[in-house]
Design brief:
By secondary structure, the protein is an alpha+beta fold. The chain is built from 14 helices and 10 strands. The strands form 3 sheets. The chain has a 6-stranded mixed β-sheet with strand order 1-4-7-8-6-5, with helices on both faces. A hairpin with a 2-residue loop joins strand 5 and strand 6.
């Protein structure tokens, strides 16, 4: 009889009710859900409370156009090109980066899932439609750890993917992908104006983020602390994503896209703070260039080096930043309060400014920040 895993809603700060949101990591004893749960997608019909959580690099007002979506361009269809055979996520071999095609099926050509290497184990990537068949093709000692189709389907909902770590000698976990279309763009409304950010290769980023969860679990007690908070699990998955992009794309354009997407998600709904990796991504992207990351062929070496350097955010700071974000971007706020949480403003301005500049343009973004925050002029001049 299969052990049912219970859904775990990750909160970045356990004492704060503001931070209850769906997560990416699903343990054997609890289910973590995909990061895409925290931003509404043009390609999926999320609830109205999140309907504005997508955004575009254009500074002009824009609205989603579902006619631009190709129903065949699903996350499942993207697996073949996004997981090249022989490309190991923990150790990138230059000769393998250009290879295309499916990652190696686990058992035979009739396998309904894909095997993807994670550290010294394998992750299984499976469509939700094939979930029960995937379980049948797994060893019994692995399958009994995983939840029933009904539970995982309810947990997945409209999310893009979920990842379930597995306790096994050979398998690191299972990544279950939904049938939803990939995110095409993200929208955010600020002061009554809509901004849109086009998203490139978001299905790939989602899958690599999920793989990142398993890679980081493999490093716990080695290059990472033995125990990580739910929030650390989330931002560390995006750190892995940036490292992998450096190796396989030879640039960090899509890592910046991930940062902007995280910022826009939290502007739309500060409950998305559970996945707000922007503070850590910004530090990484301003301290490490592609060339620096390429020096670390092994992800284990890279994360052991950077983890101690990345500035931490404690529970009090996270709660106060959450409150500041909510007050600043709450549509019901009738007027700015420039001195509100002034001691946290510099940090928030630093993190949001790159995204606001992409959306609004530098001049308008600086003007808006100055109107909203008493510390903006000092912060902008310092930069």
């Amino acid at each position: 009889m299969r052990t049912l895993a219970l859904l775990l809603l990750i909160s970045a700060v356990s004492v704060s009710s503001l931070v209850v949101a769906n997560a990416d990591l699903i343990s054997i004893d609890s289910i973590h859900t995909s990061d895409s749960a925290n931003s509404s997608s043009v390609s999926s019909s999320n609830s109205s409370s999140n309907s504005n959580s997508n955004s575009n690099s254009s500074s002009n007002s824009s609205h989603s156009d579902s006619s631009t979506l190709d129903s065949s361009n699903s996350l499942n269809d993207a697996l073949a090109s996004y997981y090249p055979q022989s490309t190991h996520p923990s150790s990138i071999e230059p000769a393998s980066i250009e290879l295309t095609g499916l990652a190696q099926p686990l058992n035979s050509s009739a396998s309904v899932f894909i095997q993807h290497p994670v550290a010294n184990k394998s992750a299984v990537i499976c469509s939700i439609n094939d979930y029960e068949q995937c379980l049948l093709q797994l060893p019994n000692e692995v399958a009994i750890q995983l939840p029933s189709y009904g539970l995982i389907n309810r947990s997945l909902g409209l999310k893009t993917a979920v990842v379930l770590p597995i306790k096994d000698e050979y398998f690191a976990g299972m990544i279950i992908v939904n049938n939803s279309l990939p995110l095409m763009f993200q929208i955010v409304a600020i002061n009554g104006r809509t901004y849109q950010l086009e998203l490139s290769q978001q299905a790939k980023l989602t899958l690599w983020h999920e793989v990142g969860h398993l890679e980081n679990i493999a490093q716990q007690g080695i290059g990472l602390p033995k125990t990580l908070s739910p929030y650390e699990h989330e931002w560390l998955a995006d750190i892995y994503l940036a490292w992998r992009l450096a190796h396989q794309h030879k640039d960090l354009v899509l890592a910046w896209q991930q940062l902007h997407r995280r910022n826009m998600a939290i502007i739309n709904n500060n409950d998305n703070i559970s996945h707000w990796s922007s503070p850590q991504l910004l530090w990484l992207l301003t301290h490490y260039q592609v060339e620096d990351m390429l020096e670390f062929q092994q992800y284990s070496d890279f994360i052991a080096k950077v983890y101690p350097q990345i500035p931490s955010i404690d529970a009090e700071e996270m709660m106060e930043i959450s409150s500041l974000i909510k007050r600043t971007f709450n549509h019901s706020a009738v007027q700015p309060l420039p001195r509100y949480m002034f001691w946290r403003q510099a940090r928030l301005i630093e993190i949001l400014r790159p995204t606001l500049t992409i959306l609004m343009g530098e001049e308008v973004a600086e003007q808006w920040l100055t109107q909203q925050f008493s510390e903006a002029v000092t912060q902008i001049n310092a930069e």
